[in-house]
Amino acid sequence: MRGASARVHRRFGAARALTAARSPRAVSARGDPSAVGAVRGISRGDSQSDSRGDSQSDSRGDSQGDPCSDPRGAAAAAPGNPRGRAELSPGLSPIIRTGSGSHSSSGMWCGTAAIRGSKMQRTQRIVGPDRYIPSRRALDMDVAKFQKDTAVVSPTVKERQRPWAASLNAFDLEKILEEVLRLSGKAQTTAAGYQYNLKALYGHEVMPGFGRRKGRYISSAPDRVLSAPDIHDDYYLTLLDWSTQNLLALALDTTVYLWHHISRETVNLMEIEHVADYVSSVSWGNGGDCLAVGVSNGEVQLWDVEHQKCLRSLTSHVSRVGCLSWNSYILSSGSHSGQIHHHDIRVAQHHVATLAGHKQEVCGLKWSLDGRYLASGGDDHLVNIWPSIQGGRGGFAPVQTFRQHQGAVKALAWCPWKSSILATGGGATDKSIRFWNVCSGACLGNVDAHSQVSSILWSTNYKELISGHGSEENQLVIWKYPAMSKVTELQGHTGRILSMALSPDGETVASAAADETLRLWRCFQMDPIRKKEKEKANRVKSSVLHQTIR
Description:
four-stranded antiparallel beta sheet; 30 strands; 30% strand
């Protein structure tokens, strides 16, 4: 019993010594002789107290088997220890041993050695490390990140990686990326027998009416060609006009013919008795019931179309009347003498004013749509803008005079959507089309037509205009305004174009030429849906105006 208690006491003393060795004081005492001696003194005192009572029993029983198993036996057997004091075994050294027996710059492994001296544990056992303590001074994160970012892959590594990528992807990725923007040749075709599942959705034809149209279709051939024998080949005459009732008036030598656009009926309206005279100009009144006819002898006749009779004859000019224009009940006429006369058809003394602004024949005359200005062009290369009312002294003077044309100016046309813009065209020595702001007097632009300009018409359905030419081309040209780019050219006349007229619906243009033909061109035809919308808007506007008047 005493032997068993002694063994327990010895084990308890060894455990105390081990706890002391693991303490921070013991760790800091590594390499300090005084600290080592203190630990040895503690263990020595414990051993002496144990050896006083149990030395005999221990020496009799346990020491006989293994002298190394008992610390006291080992101490007694060792030379130089005559008193037989117990000392710490090598397995309980106060100096803590590392796993490898050496220290490193990045940290150290902390652990303990097994206790020797027990019968049940006769061999030395190394216990695994508890934890790893890194040295923060040896770890520089900024330097490590910089080295990682600036790392350069050697060409040999790239060459070694390329076959790997080719074997994995079945193609050379870098080569494909280099040639992505340099594709050329024909497009790849699908294999024979390939079925496209989405063909029913994306392979059908575009239905009519869907998608955006690039532009409207304009037929290059005339819609109708009429014969015009004995027409005067004279640039300064106005031989064609179209009424609001869809009647075309055409002057052929001494006769005026009417042709109805809908019924295709032709009527011989009048014929001059004197063989030496001829019809030099025609112009429809605002209502379309009265036709003014200018004669080469200076006379102006007013004809009732419905009853086919002459209403009255206006005499004031001494030479041929080459152009006529209406402004309500005022009829203006231009003559070869260079004068412009205003006729008030309501009174007996019809000649109410004379405009003297041209030194040579007046070949172009046109009132603005609002009735404020009258534009006149003459053979003296001038364009005059006249007011509708008299000046302070009771006379008329032009508010604007344009002198930029280098030839006779016959073609005059007012813009239908902006009443202050006037288009003018020059003769064979000018060959240009110009645009004017009559309020400011500025020239808005000009375009070279490369041939004589005999007539200009604005389209009421599109922002376009059409010009008739002579001398060289003998064609009609449609221009996009204000870019003045050519939309198309209409060819077919073999002689120069003398006069043009626009139908009431704004879709058809009639041209009379020196080749003795009258051609109708459907060049401004509107889309049916857009045409219905325009007609509806016009009906609403007229009804509102009627209610306002009432």
